[in-house]
Amino acid sequence: MNTIVTSKEEILKTSRELMQRQGWSAVNIRSVAAACGVSVGSIYNYFSSKTELIGTIVESIWCEIFHRPEDEAVFQDTQTCITWMYERMEYGCKRYPGFFVMHSLGFMQEDKPDGRRRMQRTQQHILDGLCAVLKRDAKIRPDAFDEQFTAEKFAEVLFTLMLSALQRQEYDPSVVLEIVRRTLY
């Protein structure tokens, strides 16, 4: 028997579990309410619409997948960071099958600006972190970046390659690591 969920965090946790067990299409206000053991109205106390609920769930899954590791060394070295990101992508795809492809396709529709905004905000946070690693990595040649070829632009290229790999469900970072080695070291 389900325990009664009384907080937004518990609703999100139960929603992630529902998505994990039954897939993306199983998540809606009614199914979340049933999984939480509460009324549909209780879900609306925390989320004004299905779109807000789904957007918040997606954001929480991105945050779970790419949570900041306890080992800060991950963010000191570009190659270590990229390897960690690929490991987290693999974890996310195993834990939430179809999540990355389904939510990105769903949020690119024009009627879901909040979900698209949340996805872009979360991805921007990851991109900013990657850029910060590039700027502090002591192994990168001092002349690797200039006004035209900036750390920000290179981070965007790397992140695009990672997102492409994510959609193909390829978790071997060796190609991206080789690009980093040949370009920056």
Helices and strands, with pairings:
Elements: H1 8-22, H2 29-36, H3 40-46, H4 50-65, H5 78-95, H6 99-107, H7 113-136, H8 151-168, H9 174-184
Helix pairs in contact: 1-2, 2-3, 4-5, 4-7, 5-9, 7-8
Describe this structure in words.
By secondary structure, the protein is mostly helical. It folds into 2 domains: 8-47, Arc Repressor Mutant, subunit A, CATH 1.10.10.60; 61-184, no CATH class. The protein has helices at 8-22, 29-36, 40-46, 50-65, 78-95, 99-107, 113-136, 151-168, 174-184. The longest helix is centred in the last third of the chain and has 24 residues, at 113-136. It is elongated. The N and C termini lie far apart (57 Å). The model has no long low-confidence stretch (mean pLDDT 86).
Mean pLDDT across the residues is 86
Helix tally equals: 9
Biggest β-sheet strands, sense, barrel = none
Secondary structure: number of strands:
0
In the predicted model, the low-confidence regions spanning at least 5 consecutive residues are: none
Structural class given helices, strands, pairing? mainly alpha
Which descriptor suits the 3D outline?
elongated
